Amino acid sequence: xxxxxxxRLTALTSAALLTLVGGYLFVRLTxxxxxxxxxxxxxxxxxxxxxxxxxxxxxxxxxxIAARRIVTxxxxxxxxxxxxxxVPIYNEDPLATFARIAAMNRSLVALGIAQRFxxxxxxxxxxxxxxxxxxxxxxxxxxxxxxxxxxFYRRRERNIGRKAGNIEDFISHSGAAYDYALILDxxxxxxxxxxxxxxxxxxxxxxxxxxxxxxxxxxxRTPFGRSLQFSAAYLSPTFARGAxxxxxxxxxxxxxxxxxxxxxxAASCGLPELSGKPPFGGHILxxxxxxxxxxxxxxxxxxxxxxxxxxxxxxxxxxxxxAKRDRRWCQGNLQHIRLLGAPGxxxxxxxxxxxxxxxxxxxxxxxxxxxxSLAAAMFPDQxxxxxxxxxxxxxxxxxxxxxxxxxxxxxxxxxLRGAFDGHNRRxxxxxxxxxxxxxxxxxxxxxxxxLLLLQSRAVAQVLLGIDGGWxxxxxxxxWVGIADALRSxxxxxxxxxxxxxxxxxxxPANAVWVAPAMLPAxxxxxxxxxxxxxxxxxxxxxxxATECELTPSSVIVEQRAIMAAWSIHEPTxxxxxxxxxxxxxxxA
Length: 588
What we know:
Radius of gyration: 25 Å
Helix content: 55-70%
Distance between the termini: 35 Å
Oligomer: single chain
Number of helices: 18
Protein backbone atom coordinates (compact mmCIF):
# COMPACT_ATOMS: atom_id res chain seq x y z
CA UNK A 1 0.00 0.00 0.00
CA UNK A 2 2.87 2.37 0.75
CA UNK A 3 4.17 1.72 -2.76
CA UNK A 4 0.88 2.76 -4.36
CA UNK A 5 0.73 5.89 -2.19
CA UNK A 6 4.24 6.81 -3.36
CA UNK A 7 3.18 6.41 -7.00
CA ARG A 8 0.05 8.49 -6.37
CA LEU A 9 2.02 11.31 -4.77
CA THR A 10 4.61 11.22 -7.56
CA ALA A 11 1.96 11.43 -10.29
CA LEU A 12 -0.10 14.07 -8.50
CA THR A 13 2.94 16.21 -7.70
CA SER A 14 4.27 15.96 -11.25
CA ALA A 15 0.89 16.84 -12.77
CA ALA A 16 0.38 19.74 -10.34
CA LEU A 17 3.87 21.19 -10.89
CA LEU A 18 3.67 20.95 -14.68
CA THR A 19 0.22 22.50 -14.62
CA LEU A 20 1.32 25.38 -12.40
CA VAL A 21 4.33 26.03 -14.63
CA GLY A 22 2.05 26.00 -17.67
CA GLY A 23 -0.40 28.35 -15.96
CA TYR A 24 2.41 30.72 -14.95
CA LEU A 25 3.81 30.80 -18.49
CA PHE A 26 0.33 31.36 -19.87
CA VAL A 27 -0.16 34.35 -17.57
CA ARG A 28 3.28 35.76 -18.41
CA LEU A 29 2.79 35.40 -22.15
CA THR A 30 -0.90 36.26 -22.50
CA UNK A 31 -2.17 39.68 -23.46
CA UNK A 32 -0.56 42.98 -24.07
CA UNK A 33 -1.13 45.91 -21.74
CA UNK A 34 -2.22 43.85 -18.73
CA UNK A 35 -4.48 40.93 -17.96
CA UNK A 36 -8.15 41.23 -18.80
CA UNK A 37 -11.03 39.27 -17.26
CA UNK A 38 -11.00 36.98 -20.30
CA UNK A 39 -7.27 36.37 -19.85
CA UNK A 40 -7.85 35.32 -16.24
CA UNK A 41 -10.76 33.09 -17.23
CA UNK A 42 -8.61 31.43 -19.91
CA UNK A 43 -5.81 30.89 -17.41
CA UNK A 44 -8.16 29.16 -14.96
CA UNK A 45 -9.52 26.97 -17.75
CA UNK A 46 -6.02 26.09 -18.94
CA UNK A 47 -4.93 25.12 -15.42
CA UNK A 48 -7.99 22.94 -14.68
CA UNK A 49 -8.09 21.25 -18.09
CA UNK A 50 -4.31 20.91 -18.27
CA UNK A 51 -4.08 19.18 -14.90
CA UNK A 52 -6.43 16.36 -15.89
CA UNK A 53 -4.77 16.03 -19.27
CA UNK A 54 -1.32 15.69 -17.70
CA UNK A 55 -2.67 13.41 -14.98
CA UNK A 56 -3.98 10.98 -17.60
CA UNK A 57 -0.63 10.95 -19.38
CA UNK A 58 1.20 10.38 -16.07
CA UNK A 59 -0.44 6.96 -15.78
CA UNK A 60 0.91 6.03 -19.22
CA UNK A 61 4.43 7.17 -18.34
CA UNK A 62 4.32 5.06 -15.17
CA UNK A 63 3.06 2.14 -17.23
CA UNK A 64 5.94 2.48 -19.68
CA ILE A 65 8.44 2.36 -16.82
CA ALA A 66 6.78 -0.58 -15.04
CA ALA A 67 7.59 -4.19 -15.92
CA ARG A 68 5.19 -6.42 -17.82
CA ARG A 69 4.62 -9.37 -15.52
CA ILE A 70 2.35 -12.25 -16.50
CA VAL A 71 1.86 -14.49 -13.46
CA THR A 72 -0.36 -17.54 -13.93
CA UNK A 73 -0.61 -20.92 -12.27
CA UNK A 74 -1.38 -24.38 -13.59
CA UNK A 75 -4.46 -23.92 -15.82
CA UNK A 76 -5.63 -27.49 -15.12
CA UNK A 77 -5.71 -27.01 -11.34
CA UNK A 78 -9.35 -26.68 -10.24
CA UNK A 79 -9.97 -23.79 -7.85
CA UNK A 80 -11.28 -24.61 -4.39
CA UNK A 81 -14.23 -22.23 -4.52
CA UNK A 82 -17.38 -22.51 -6.61
CA UNK A 83 -17.88 -19.74 -9.16
CA UNK A 84 -21.05 -18.54 -10.86
CA UNK A 85 -20.36 -16.96 -14.25
CA UNK A 86 -23.07 -14.32 -14.60
CA VAL A 87 -24.12 -13.15 -18.07
CA PRO A 88 -26.69 -10.31 -17.81
CA ILE A 89 -28.47 -9.72 -21.13
CA TYR A 90 -30.97 -7.11 -22.29
CA ASN A 91 -32.49 -7.48 -25.77
CA GLU A 92 -29.27 -8.99 -27.15
CA ASP A 93 -28.70 -11.32 -30.10
CA PRO A 94 -29.02 -14.71 -28.36
CA LEU A 95 -27.13 -16.59 -31.08
CA ALA A 96 -24.00 -14.49 -30.57
CA THR A 97 -24.36 -14.34 -26.78
CA PHE A 98 -25.00 -18.05 -26.26
CA ALA A 99 -22.21 -18.99 -28.70
CA ARG A 100 -19.78 -17.08 -26.49
CA ILE A 101 -21.05 -18.97 -23.45
CA ALA A 102 -20.67 -22.28 -25.29
CA ALA A 103 -17.08 -21.41 -26.25
CA MET A 104 -16.16 -20.50 -22.67
CA ASN A 105 -17.80 -23.66 -21.39
CA ARG A 106 -15.88 -25.83 -23.87
CA SER A 107 -12.64 -24.11 -22.82
CA LEU A 108 -13.33 -24.94 -19.16
CA VAL A 109 -14.30 -28.52 -20.02
CA ALA A 110 -11.10 -28.99 -22.04
CA LEU A 111 -9.03 -27.94 -19.01
CA GLY A 112 -10.88 -30.33 -16.72
CA ILE A 113 -12.06 -27.61 -14.31
CA ALA A 114 -15.63 -27.08 -15.54
CA GLN A 115 -17.17 -28.70 -12.44
CA ARG A 116 -16.15 -25.65 -10.37
CA PHE A 117 -17.99 -23.19 -12.63
CA UNK A 118 -21.69 -22.66 -13.35
CA UNK A 119 -23.15 -20.30 -15.95
CA UNK A 120 -26.19 -18.16 -15.10
CA UNK A 121 -27.81 -16.28 -17.97
CA UNK A 122 -29.70 -13.40 -16.37
CA UNK A 123 -32.13 -11.98 -18.88
CA UNK A 124 -33.77 -8.59 -18.51
CA UNK A 125 -35.15 -8.76 -22.06
CA UNK A 126 -38.51 -7.00 -22.40
CA UNK A 127 -39.21 -7.75 -26.06
CA UNK A 128 -41.22 -11.00 -26.18
CA UNK A 129 -39.87 -12.04 -29.57
CA UNK A 130 -36.32 -11.71 -28.26
CA UNK A 131 -37.34 -13.60 -25.13
CA UNK A 132 -38.69 -16.45 -27.25
CA UNK A 133 -35.42 -16.56 -29.17
CA UNK A 134 -33.47 -16.73 -25.91
CA UNK A 135 -35.51 -19.69 -24.71
CA UNK A 136 -35.01 -21.48 -28.04
CA UNK A 137 -31.26 -20.89 -28.15
CA UNK A 138 -30.97 -21.91 -24.50
CA UNK A 139 -32.23 -25.36 -25.48
CA UNK A 140 -29.35 -25.53 -27.96
CA UNK A 141 -26.92 -24.39 -25.27
CA UNK A 142 -27.86 -27.11 -22.80
CA UNK A 143 -26.74 -29.71 -25.38
CA UNK A 144 -23.17 -28.54 -24.77
CA UNK A 145 -20.69 -30.76 -22.86
CA UNK A 146 -21.27 -30.99 -19.09
CA UNK A 147 -24.12 -28.49 -19.30
CA UNK A 148 -26.53 -30.50 -17.12
CA UNK A 149 -26.82 -28.78 -13.75
CA UNK A 150 -24.23 -26.17 -14.70
CA UNK A 151 -25.92 -23.79 -17.18
CA PHE A 152 -29.04 -21.93 -16.11
CA TYR A 153 -31.34 -19.28 -17.57
CA ARG A 154 -33.93 -16.99 -16.05
CA ARG A 155 -35.76 -13.91 -17.27
CA ARG A 156 -37.08 -11.11 -15.06
CA GLU A 157 -40.39 -9.66 -16.12
CA ARG A 158 -39.43 -6.28 -14.64
CA ASN A 159 -35.86 -5.07 -15.05
CA ILE A 160 -35.72 -3.16 -11.76
CA GLY A 161 -32.35 -1.50 -11.25
CA ARG A 162 -31.18 -2.49 -14.73
CA LYS A 163 -27.89 -4.45 -14.78
CA ALA A 164 -27.00 -3.75 -11.14
CA GLY A 165 -30.47 -4.85 -10.08
CA ASN A 166 -30.16 -7.96 -12.25
CA ILE A 167 -26.92 -8.95 -10.49
CA GLU A 168 -28.39 -8.10 -7.09
CA ASP A 169 -31.41 -10.31 -7.81
CA PHE A 170 -29.13 -13.29 -8.51
CA ILE A 171 -26.95 -12.64 -5.46
CA SER A 172 -29.96 -12.42 -3.14
CA HIS A 173 -31.69 -15.55 -4.51
CA SER A 174 -28.80 -17.84 -5.48
CA GLY A 175 -25.59 -16.26 -4.23
CA ALA A 176 -25.34 -18.48 -1.15
CA ALA A 177 -24.50 -21.42 -3.43
CA TYR A 178 -21.27 -19.82 -4.65
CA ASP A 179 -18.01 -18.45 -3.30
CA TYR A 180 -17.32 -16.19 -6.28
CA ALA A 181 -19.19 -14.58 -9.15
CA LEU A 182 -17.52 -13.78 -12.47
CA ILE A 183 -19.53 -10.90 -13.94
CA LEU A 184 -19.58 -10.58 -17.72
CA ASP A 185 -21.38 -8.50 -20.31
CA UNK A 186 -23.34 -10.03 -23.16
CA UNK A 187 -20.37 -9.41 -25.48
CA UNK A 188 -17.72 -10.73 -23.07
CA UNK A 189 -15.53 -13.69 -23.93
CA UNK A 190 -12.82 -15.25 -21.75
CA UNK A 191 -10.36 -18.10 -21.99
CA UNK A 192 -11.03 -20.99 -19.61
CA UNK A 193 -7.45 -20.64 -18.34
CA UNK A 194 -8.11 -16.97 -17.50
CA UNK A 195 -11.35 -17.81 -15.68
CA UNK A 196 -9.58 -20.51 -13.68
CA UNK A 197 -6.68 -18.20 -12.81
CA UNK A 198 -9.08 -15.52 -11.54
CA UNK A 199 -10.81 -18.00 -9.23
CA UNK A 200 -7.47 -19.35 -7.96
CA UNK A 201 -6.35 -15.81 -7.11
CA UNK A 202 -9.51 -15.38 -5.07
CA UNK A 203 -8.68 -18.66 -3.32
CA UNK A 204 -5.13 -17.50 -2.57
CA UNK A 205 -6.10 -14.17 -0.96
CA UNK A 206 -9.10 -14.29 1.43
CA UNK A 207 -9.13 -10.47 1.61
CA UNK A 208 -9.46 -10.05 -2.16
CA UNK A 209 -13.00 -8.81 -2.77
CA UNK A 210 -12.80 -8.05 -6.49
CA UNK A 211 -10.32 -8.79 -9.23
CA UNK A 212 -10.57 -6.88 -12.53
CA UNK A 213 -9.02 -7.83 -15.86
CA UNK A 214 -8.34 -5.46 -18.76
CA UNK A 215 -10.40 -6.80 -21.68
CA UNK A 216 -9.25 -6.46 -25.28
CA UNK A 217 -11.73 -5.60 -28.03
CA UNK A 218 -12.23 -8.22 -30.73
CA UNK A 219 -14.15 -8.75 -34.00
CA UNK A 220 -14.03 -5.11 -35.08
CA ARG A 221 -14.49 -4.59 -38.83
CA THR A 222 -14.94 -0.85 -39.35
CA PRO A 223 -12.19 1.81 -39.24
CA PHE A 224 -13.76 3.30 -36.11
CA GLY A 225 -14.06 -0.08 -34.40
CA ARG A 226 -10.62 -1.25 -35.47
CA SER A 227 -9.03 1.93 -34.16
CA LEU A 228 -10.66 1.29 -30.76
CA GLN A 229 -9.62 -2.35 -30.95
CA PHE A 230 -5.97 -1.47 -31.61
CA SER A 231 -5.95 1.18 -28.90
CA ALA A 232 -7.43 -1.26 -26.36
CA ALA A 233 -4.86 -3.95 -27.22
CA TYR A 234 -1.72 -1.88 -27.77
CA LEU A 235 -2.10 1.33 -25.74
CA SER A 236 -4.64 0.68 -22.96
CA PRO A 237 -2.66 -2.01 -21.08
CA THR A 238 0.17 0.47 -20.50
CA PHE A 239 -2.23 3.13 -19.20
CA ALA A 240 -3.88 0.46 -17.03
CA ARG A 241 -0.51 -0.77 -15.74
CA GLY A 242 0.36 2.74 -14.57
CA ALA A 243 -3.07 3.19 -13.04
CA UNK A 244 -2.73 -0.16 -11.22
CA UNK A 245 0.52 1.03 -9.63
CA UNK A 246 -1.31 4.01 -8.15
CA UNK A 247 -4.52 2.19 -7.24
CA UNK A 248 -2.91 -0.64 -5.31
CA UNK A 249 -5.65 -2.44 -3.36
CA UNK A 250 -8.25 0.24 -4.20
CA UNK A 251 -8.48 -0.48 -7.90
CA UNK A 252 -11.29 -0.07 -10.38
CA UNK A 253 -14.32 -2.10 -11.32
CA UNK A 254 -15.65 -1.63 -14.84
CA UNK A 255 -18.75 -3.76 -14.42
CA UNK A 256 -17.65 -6.76 -16.46
CA UNK A 257 -14.83 -9.27 -16.99
CA UNK A 258 -14.21 -9.16 -13.25
CA UNK A 259 -14.66 -11.67 -10.44
CA UNK A 260 -16.10 -10.79 -7.02
CA UNK A 261 -16.25 -12.60 -3.70
CA UNK A 262 -19.98 -13.20 -3.26
CA UNK A 263 -19.93 -12.82 0.54
CA UNK A 264 -18.12 -9.48 0.30
CA UNK A 265 -20.27 -8.24 -2.57
CA ALA A 266 -23.52 -9.19 -0.84
CA ALA A 267 -22.51 -7.57 2.45
CA SER A 268 -20.97 -4.39 1.05
CA CYS A 269 -22.48 -3.47 -2.31
CA GLY A 270 -26.14 -2.82 -1.73
CA LEU A 271 -26.82 0.26 -3.85
CA PRO A 272 -29.17 3.00 -2.70
CA GLU A 273 -31.73 4.56 -4.99
CA LEU A 274 -30.83 8.23 -5.07
CA SER A 275 -33.54 10.65 -4.02
CA GLY A 276 -35.19 12.74 -6.68
CA LYS A 277 -35.78 12.13 -10.36
CA PRO A 278 -33.19 11.16 -12.97
CA PRO A 279 -30.71 12.15 -14.24
CA PHE A 280 -29.22 12.89 -10.78
CA GLY A 281 -31.74 10.77 -8.88
CA GLY A 282 -33.03 7.24 -9.23
CA HIS A 283 -30.94 4.13 -9.84
CA ILE A 284 -27.17 4.62 -10.06
CA LEU A 285 -26.12 4.06 -13.67
CA UNK A 286 -22.34 3.86 -13.20
CA UNK A 287 -22.81 1.33 -10.40
CA UNK A 288 -19.42 -0.34 -10.90
CA UNK A 289 -17.34 2.58 -9.58
CA UNK A 290 -19.63 2.78 -6.55
CA UNK A 291 -19.43 -0.95 -5.84
CA UNK A 292 -15.62 -0.83 -5.94
CA UNK A 293 -15.68 2.09 -3.49
CA UNK A 294 -18.05 0.23 -1.15
CA UNK A 295 -15.84 -2.87 -1.17
CA UNK A 296 -12.80 -0.73 -0.32
CA UNK A 297 -14.74 1.00 2.45
CA UNK A 298 -15.54 -2.40 3.97
CA UNK A 299 -11.84 -3.34 4.00
CA UNK A 300 -11.77 -5.63 0.97
CA UNK A 301 -9.02 -5.49 -1.64
CA UNK A 302 -10.00 -4.39 -5.15
CA UNK A 303 -7.20 -5.24 -7.57
CA UNK A 304 -6.51 -5.17 -11.29
CA UNK A 305 -3.96 -7.06 -13.38
CA UNK A 306 -3.50 -5.59 -16.88
CA UNK A 307 -1.07 -8.37 -17.81
CA UNK A 308 -3.48 -11.28 -17.41
CA UNK A 309 -4.35 -12.40 -20.97
CA UNK A 310 -7.47 -14.05 -22.33
CA UNK A 311 -10.11 -11.42 -21.47
CA UNK A 312 -12.13 -10.02 -24.40
CA UNK A 313 -15.16 -7.95 -25.29
CA UNK A 314 -16.66 -6.32 -28.36
CA UNK A 315 -16.87 -2.58 -28.88
CA UNK A 316 -19.04 -0.11 -30.79
CA UNK A 317 -18.40 -0.09 -34.53
CA UNK A 318 -19.49 3.47 -35.24
CA UNK A 319 -19.45 6.85 -33.57
CA UNK A 320 -23.24 6.96 -33.12
CA UNK A 321 -23.31 3.78 -31.01
CA UNK A 322 -20.22 4.97 -29.14
CA ALA A 323 -21.92 8.28 -28.33
CA LYS A 324 -25.09 6.52 -27.18
CA ARG A 325 -23.11 4.43 -24.70
CA ASP A 326 -21.02 7.44 -23.70
CA ARG A 327 -24.19 9.42 -22.94
CA ARG A 328 -25.22 6.80 -20.37
CA TRP A 329 -21.74 6.78 -18.83
CA CYS A 330 -21.79 10.58 -18.67
CA GLN A 331 -25.04 10.59 -16.71
CA GLY A 332 -23.81 7.83 -14.42
CA ASN A 333 -20.50 9.55 -13.71
CA LEU A 334 -22.12 12.90 -13.00
CA GLN A 335 -24.41 11.16 -10.51
CA HIS A 336 -21.26 10.49 -8.49
CA ILE A 337 -21.14 14.17 -7.54
CA ARG A 338 -23.84 13.31 -5.03
CA LEU A 339 -21.72 10.50 -3.57
CA LEU A 340 -18.50 12.45 -2.98
CA GLY A 341 -19.48 13.12 0.63
CA ALA A 342 -20.70 9.58 1.39
CA PRO A 343 -19.46 8.52 4.85
CA GLY A 344 -16.51 6.18 5.25
CA UNK A 345 -15.23 6.17 1.67
CA UNK A 346 -11.47 5.95 1.14
CA UNK A 347 -9.84 9.17 -0.13
CA UNK A 348 -8.75 7.39 -3.30
CA UNK A 349 -12.34 6.28 -3.97
CA UNK A 350 -13.49 9.89 -3.73
CA UNK A 351 -10.67 10.91 -6.06
CA UNK A 352 -11.76 8.20 -8.50
CA UNK A 353 -15.27 9.69 -8.50
CA UNK A 354 -13.76 13.12 -9.26
CA UNK A 355 -11.75 11.61 -12.12
CA UNK A 356 -14.91 10.10 -13.58
CA UNK A 357 -16.74 13.40 -13.34
CA UNK A 358 -13.87 15.33 -14.91
CA UNK A 359 -13.66 12.82 -17.77
CA UNK A 360 -16.87 14.43 -19.02
CA UNK A 361 -16.63 17.97 -17.66
CA UNK A 362 -13.31 18.30 -19.51
CA UNK A 363 -15.08 18.61 -22.86
CA UNK A 364 -17.23 21.64 -21.99
CA UNK A 365 -14.20 23.17 -20.25
CA UNK A 366 -12.14 22.89 -23.45
CA UNK A 367 -15.10 24.29 -25.38
CA UNK A 368 -15.28 27.20 -22.94
CA UNK A 369 -11.54 27.81 -23.42
CA UNK A 370 -12.05 27.95 -27.19
CA UNK A 371 -14.95 30.38 -26.77
CA UNK A 372 -12.97 32.57 -24.38
CA SER A 373 -9.99 32.64 -26.73
CA LEU A 374 -12.18 33.67 -29.64
CA ALA A 375 -13.86 36.34 -27.52
CA ALA A 376 -10.45 37.70 -26.51
CA ALA A 377 -9.45 37.90 -30.17
CA MET A 378 -12.71 39.55 -31.28
CA PHE A 379 -12.71 42.10 -28.45
CA PRO A 380 -9.05 43.01 -27.92
CA ASP A 381 -9.72 46.40 -26.28
CA GLN A 382 -11.06 45.16 -22.96
CA UNK A 383 -9.95 46.96 -19.80
CA UNK A 384 -7.14 45.30 -17.86
CA UNK A 385 -8.00 43.79 -14.49
CA UNK A 386 -4.32 43.57 -13.54
CA UNK A 387 -1.85 46.08 -14.92
CA UNK A 388 1.48 45.03 -16.35
CA UNK A 389 3.02 44.24 -19.64
CA UNK A 390 3.18 40.68 -20.96
CA UNK A 391 6.56 39.52 -22.17
CA UNK A 392 5.01 38.66 -25.51
CA UNK A 393 1.61 37.74 -26.82
CA UNK A 394 1.19 33.97 -26.79
CA UNK A 395 0.25 32.30 -30.03
CA UNK A 396 -2.80 30.03 -29.95
CA UNK A 397 -0.66 27.49 -31.75
CA UNK A 398 1.53 27.27 -28.63
CA UNK A 399 -1.39 25.91 -26.63
CA UNK A 400 -2.38 23.55 -29.44
CA UNK A 401 1.16 22.17 -29.68
CA UNK A 402 1.40 21.76 -25.90
CA UNK A 403 -1.88 19.82 -25.74
CA UNK A 404 -0.83 17.69 -28.71
CA UNK A 405 2.49 16.86 -27.06
CA UNK A 406 0.81 15.74 -23.82
CA UNK A 407 -1.58 13.50 -25.78
CA UNK A 408 0.90 12.05 -28.27
CA UNK A 409 4.06 11.63 -26.17
CA UNK A 410 2.74 8.66 -24.11
CA UNK A 411 1.79 6.79 -27.30
CA UNK A 412 5.24 7.33 -28.78
CA UNK A 413 6.86 6.15 -25.53
CA UNK A 414 4.76 2.97 -25.66
CA UNK A 415 5.89 2.43 -29.24
CA LEU A 416 9.53 3.03 -28.32
CA ARG A 417 9.44 0.57 -25.43
CA GLY A 418 7.73 -2.01 -27.62
CA ALA A 419 10.57 -1.72 -30.13
CA PHE A 420 13.14 -2.54 -27.44
CA ASP A 421 11.36 -5.29 -25.48
CA GLY A 422 9.90 -7.11 -28.49
CA HIS A 423 6.27 -6.35 -27.68
CA ASN A 424 5.75 -4.81 -31.13
CA ARG A 425 6.27 -8.22 -32.74
CA ARG A 426 2.88 -9.26 -31.43
CA UNK A 427 1.38 -6.48 -33.56
CA UNK A 428 3.19 -7.22 -36.81
CA UNK A 429 6.50 -5.54 -36.00
CA UNK A 430 7.59 -2.01 -35.17
CA UNK A 431 6.94 -0.62 -38.66
CA UNK A 432 3.36 -1.82 -38.69
CA UNK A 433 2.86 -0.76 -35.06
CA UNK A 434 4.20 2.71 -35.94
CA UNK A 435 1.79 3.00 -38.87
CA UNK A 436 -1.09 1.91 -36.63
CA UNK A 437 -0.17 4.37 -33.86
CA UNK A 438 0.05 7.21 -36.38
CA UNK A 439 -3.24 6.11 -37.93
CA UNK A 440 -4.89 6.07 -34.51
CA UNK A 441 -3.54 9.56 -33.80
CA UNK A 442 -4.85 10.90 -37.11
CA UNK A 443 -8.28 9.30 -36.77
CA UNK A 444 -8.73 10.31 -33.13
CA UNK A 445 -7.66 13.87 -34.02
CA UNK A 446 -10.20 14.07 -36.84
CA UNK A 447 -13.00 12.77 -34.61
CA UNK A 448 -11.98 14.76 -31.51
CA UNK A 449 -14.04 17.92 -32.30
CA UNK A 450 -17.16 15.82 -32.92
CA LEU A 451 -16.62 13.86 -29.70
CA LEU A 452 -15.99 17.07 -27.78
CA LEU A 453 -19.30 18.53 -28.93
CA LEU A 454 -21.17 15.27 -28.28
CA GLN A 455 -19.81 15.05 -24.73
CA SER A 456 -20.49 18.73 -24.12
CA ARG A 457 -24.10 18.21 -25.21
CA ALA A 458 -24.37 15.16 -22.93
CA VAL A 459 -23.14 17.17 -19.95
CA ALA A 460 -25.54 20.02 -20.78
CA GLN A 461 -28.47 17.58 -21.03
CA VAL A 462 -27.68 16.08 -17.62
CA LEU A 463 -27.29 19.50 -16.01
CA LEU A 464 -30.62 20.55 -17.56
CA GLY A 465 -32.31 17.52 -16.02
CA ILE A 466 -32.76 15.45 -19.18
CA ASP A 467 -32.67 11.70 -18.49
CA GLY A 468 -30.86 9.67 -21.15
CA GLY A 469 -32.10 6.31 -19.80
CA TRP A 470 -30.41 3.01 -20.64
CA UNK A 471 -30.90 2.36 -24.37
CA UNK A 472 -30.26 -1.14 -25.69
CA UNK A 473 -26.90 -1.65 -27.40
CA UNK A 474 -26.80 -2.44 -31.10
CA UNK A 475 -23.81 -4.66 -31.69
CA UNK A 476 -22.19 -5.69 -34.95
CA UNK A 477 -21.14 -3.85 -38.10
CA UNK A 478 -23.77 -1.12 -38.18
CA TRP A 479 -22.88 0.98 -41.21
CA VAL A 480 -24.23 4.52 -40.92
CA GLY A 481 -25.28 6.10 -44.19
CA ILE A 482 -24.69 9.77 -44.92
CA ALA A 483 -28.38 10.61 -44.38
CA ASP A 484 -28.47 8.91 -40.96
CA ALA A 485 -25.15 10.47 -40.01
CA LEU A 486 -26.45 13.91 -40.96
CA ARG A 487 -29.62 13.41 -38.89
CA SER A 488 -27.46 12.61 -35.88
CA UNK A 489 -24.85 15.33 -36.33
CA UNK A 490 -26.50 18.23 -38.20
CA UNK A 491 -26.25 20.41 -35.10
CA UNK A 492 -22.50 19.71 -34.91
CA UNK A 493 -22.14 20.89 -38.49
CA UNK A 494 -24.15 24.02 -37.67
CA UNK A 495 -22.12 24.88 -34.54
CA UNK A 496 -18.81 24.34 -36.34
CA UNK A 497 -19.87 26.32 -39.42
CA UNK A 498 -21.11 29.24 -37.32
CA UNK A 499 -17.92 29.23 -35.23
CA UNK A 500 -15.64 29.20 -38.25
CA UNK A 501 -17.81 31.73 -40.10
CA UNK A 502 -17.87 34.08 -37.10
CA UNK A 503 -14.11 33.82 -36.76
CA UNK A 504 -13.58 34.65 -40.43
CA UNK A 505 -15.91 37.62 -40.11
CA UNK A 506 -14.76 39.11 -36.81
CA UNK A 507 -11.27 37.72 -36.12
CA PRO A 508 -9.87 36.48 -39.45
CA ALA A 509 -6.33 36.29 -38.10
CA ASN A 510 -7.44 33.48 -35.76
CA ALA A 511 -9.11 31.38 -38.46
CA VAL A 512 -5.83 29.58 -39.15
CA TRP A 513 -5.98 27.78 -35.75
CA VAL A 514 -9.77 27.57 -35.47
CA ALA A 515 -10.14 25.87 -38.86
CA PRO A 516 -8.27 22.64 -37.89
CA ALA A 517 -10.74 22.17 -35.04
CA MET A 518 -13.92 23.17 -36.87
CA LEU A 519 -13.40 21.68 -40.34
CA PRO A 520 -13.50 18.05 -39.10
CA ALA A 521 -16.72 18.89 -37.24
CA UNK A 522 -18.21 20.43 -40.38
CA UNK A 523 -17.50 17.14 -42.15
CA UNK A 524 -18.77 15.08 -39.19
CA UNK A 525 -21.50 13.26 -41.20
CA UNK A 526 -18.94 12.13 -43.78
CA UNK A 527 -16.44 11.05 -41.11
CA UNK A 528 -19.12 9.15 -39.18
CA UNK A 529 -20.26 7.34 -42.30
CA UNK A 530 -16.84 6.54 -43.75
CA UNK A 531 -15.45 5.25 -40.44
CA UNK A 532 -18.48 2.99 -39.95
CA UNK A 533 -18.14 1.09 -43.23
CA UNK A 534 -16.93 -2.50 -42.70
CA UNK A 535 -13.71 -3.43 -44.42
CA UNK A 536 -13.86 -5.94 -47.28
CA UNK A 537 -10.18 -6.81 -46.92
CA UNK A 538 -9.90 -10.57 -46.43
CA UNK A 539 -6.19 -10.96 -45.74
CA UNK A 540 -4.02 -10.03 -42.80
CA UNK A 541 -4.84 -6.47 -41.71
CA UNK A 542 -2.35 -3.84 -42.80
CA UNK A 543 -3.42 -1.19 -40.28
CA UNK A 544 -4.55 -1.56 -36.66
CA ALA A 545 -3.42 -5.19 -36.57
CA THR A 546 -3.73 -6.74 -33.11
CA GLU A 547 -2.32 -9.81 -31.44
CA CYS A 548 -5.78 -11.40 -31.33
CA GLU A 549 -6.03 -11.14 -35.13
CA LEU A 550 -2.52 -12.30 -35.98
CA THR A 551 -2.56 -15.20 -33.48
CA PRO A 552 -6.19 -15.66 -32.37
CA SER A 553 -6.91 -17.05 -28.95
CA SER A 554 -8.34 -20.58 -28.93
CA VAL A 555 -11.60 -19.40 -27.37
CA ILE A 556 -12.05 -16.85 -30.17
CA VAL A 557 -11.54 -19.56 -32.79
CA GLU A 558 -14.00 -21.81 -30.93
CA GLN A 559 -16.63 -19.10 -30.68
CA ARG A 560 -16.42 -18.38 -34.42
CA ALA A 561 -16.78 -22.08 -35.21
CA ILE A 562 -19.83 -22.40 -32.95
CA MET A 563 -21.43 -19.32 -34.51
CA ALA A 564 -20.91 -20.75 -38.00
CA ALA A 565 -22.32 -24.16 -37.04
CA TRP A 566 -25.30 -22.85 -35.09
CA SER A 567 -26.33 -20.28 -37.71
CA ILE A 568 -26.98 -23.08 -40.23
CA HIS A 569 -29.76 -24.66 -38.17
CA GLU A 570 -31.75 -22.13 -36.18
CA PRO A 571 -33.97 -23.57 -33.42
CA THR A 572 -37.75 -23.39 -33.36
CA UNK A 573 -39.03 -20.42 -31.40
CA UNK A 574 -41.05 -20.92 -28.24
CA UNK A 575 -44.23 -18.84 -28.01
CA UNK A 576 -44.11 -18.49 -24.23
CA UNK A 577 -40.63 -18.92 -22.77
CA UNK A 578 -40.55 -20.32 -19.25
CA UNK A 579 -38.06 -18.59 -16.93
CA UNK A 580 -35.60 -20.93 -15.24
CA UNK A 581 -33.76 -19.94 -12.07
CA UNK A 582 -30.35 -21.05 -10.84
CA UNK A 583 -30.53 -23.23 -7.73
CA UNK A 584 -30.23 -21.76 -4.27
CA UNK A 585 -27.79 -24.45 -3.19
CA UNK A 586 -25.37 -26.75 -4.93
CA UNK A 587 -23.26 -29.63 -3.74
CA ALA A 588 -19.55 -28.84 -4.09
